[in-house]
Amino acid sequence: MGRTSDAKEKLLEVAFHLIWDSSYGGVSVDQICERAGVNKGSFYYYFGSKADLAVAAYDEHWKQRQPELDRLFSAQIPPLERLTRWCESAYERQKEKANKFGHVCGCPYASIGVEVATQDDKIRAKAEELIARGTKYVETAIAEAQREGSLPAGDAKQMAQQAYSFVLGALLRAKIQNDVEVLRDLAPTVMAIIGAKSETRVAA
Amino acid sequence: MGRTSDAKEKLLEVAFHLIWDSSYGGVSVDQICERAGVNKGSFYYYFGSKADLAVAAYDEHWKQRQPELDRLFSAQIPPLERLTRWCESAYERQKEKANKFGHVCGCPYASIGVEVATQDDKIRAKAEELIARGTKYVETAIAEAQREGSLPAGDAKQMAQQAYSFVLGALLRAKIQNDVEVLRDLAPTVMAIIGAKSETRVAA
DNA sequence: AAAATAGTTGACTGAACGGTTAACTTGAGG
DNA sequence: CCTCAAGTTAACCGTTCAGTCAACTATTTT
After folding, report:
1. pLDDT of amino acid B198
2. Do B113 and A195 touch (CB under 8 A)?
3. Which of A8, A80, A203, B200 is the most exposed place for a label (fewest CB within 10 A)?
4. Whole-angstrom Cα distance, residue A169 to residue B132?
């Protein structure tokens, strides 16, 4: 019935990348519409507000990202190696984005979350949710490593939170210093946090 | 000559707290002026732009904060204990602010830095500078601990950066989750990062 | 082909934005 | 006590902001 359209998907994608590249407050609805090739009226036909779009855009992005994380944290890979690869992929991903956008963009969820945390609770809650989901992958890997004996026993959930906090902090630092090299060799520190015996702990 | 005024100082203080409580983009020059009891004309008599004020306000805040950090990282205190106290003070400070403002505010430098990093280079650079200065305290403590043998040798600077990144990440998480309890027991993880032998490593 | 549905258009609103200006007031130094 | 620099005032500027709306078009169902 009626006609069809890809305007909604366009808006979601454009909004996510524009906000990631600058910030929530730094991007206007007009800009998003222009880049998406959609009129403002259509924007408000699909979304009730700018904040609603942001929440939907981050949800959509997670959906598209999930397969990649599933692959990265595949049961085929030894649990500790999953974590090492995850650290390396964070570095690679930021390097790519930095080349494309001209500056280090950091973690999109954390960036928008910390920006609007005290102002918009829906966006804050969405950022919290997505960070929690990311942490879950880490937690599962840690728990499995403990079970198979490659890691001493401990509270996997809390360890995952600490390790994830460290990586978020490093991403934050990389963005503020606009230097992707901050993200080299995250893995040894993550290993230290989760209590793995240091094999090749270079400097930290 | 001419009359004197405390308008400038008022603006600096009000701006810092307003931005910390919400965000750079979420606070308007009008709001700052109103809360400071200063007219807009006076604002632009003292500061060339909103961004200039922000830079000045964060600089001023550092000046006021420095004595506290000097005390916290006093040479009188054993170096590793300095770090423990620093972690505890971060928790206490956020708890106080959360009670006062009604929500967890996180690290002011990191919050504004990550918000405007890709948009305003002067503010970005100031945030970078202040974070680097904070890291220096940690680095000195680590280096001293290594010298006195309470910590194995290693690259103190890099260790400090990793430890500081972790704390920044935890502050970020606390803000997004709006839960100050995220910041309890940072010290054990910091100790793990810098390679201290775990005495009372509870869970992480 | 009529009717119902789905989506589009772009001009419009009023408030808020950062920033400017010229006239004015104040107070310390000579 | 006068001068003049330092600081204040409030109206004002053009722009941009998020959000609205009534008219319009394209597609599918009947």
Report:
1. 61
2. no
3. B200
4. 14
The whole-angstrom separation of Cα A175 and Cα A156 is 28
Asked if the C-beta of A166 comes within 8 angstroms of chain B's C-beta atoms, the answer is yes
Share of chain A above pLDDT 90, in %: 94
Smallest CA–C1' separation from A7, nucleotide: C7
Contact flag, residue B23 CB and nucleic strand C, below 7 A: no
Q: Which pLDDT band holds residue B5 (cuts at 50, 70, 90)?
A: confident
Task: Say how far apart CA A51 and CA A49 lie, in whole Å.
Answer: 5
pLDDT per position as a tens digit, B65-104: 999 999 999 999 999 999 999 999 999 999 999 999 999 9
Conformation bin of residue A178: beta by default, left when phi > 0, alpha when psi is -120 to 50 = left
Q: How many residues does chain A have?
A: 204
Q: How confident is the model at residue B128 (pLDDT cuts 50, 70, 90)?
A: very high
Quick check: A22 CB within 7 A of strand D? Answer: no
Paired tokens of B161: 């950066």
Closest Cα to residue B122, out of A30, A140, A176?
A176
Kindly determine whether residue B25 and residue A21, on different chains, have CB atoms separated by under 8 Å.
Answer: no
Cross-chain CB nearest to B172 (options A168, A182, A189): A168
Q: Count Cα atoms within 13 angstroms, Cβ side, for B104.
A: 26
d(CA B161, CA B136): 9
Spacing of B42 CA from C23 C1' in Å: 14
- HEC profile of B164-190: HHHHHHHHHHHHHHCCHHHHCCCHHHH
pLDDT band at A202 (very low <50, low <70, confident <90, very high): very low
The model's confidence at residue B2, banded by pLDDT at 50, 70 and 90, is: low
Strands (E), chain A: none
Report d(CA A146, CA A169) in Å as an integer: 25
User: Which sign does the torsion angle of CA B129, B131, B132, B137 carry?
Assistant: positive
**Whether this model's pTM surpasses 0.90:** yes
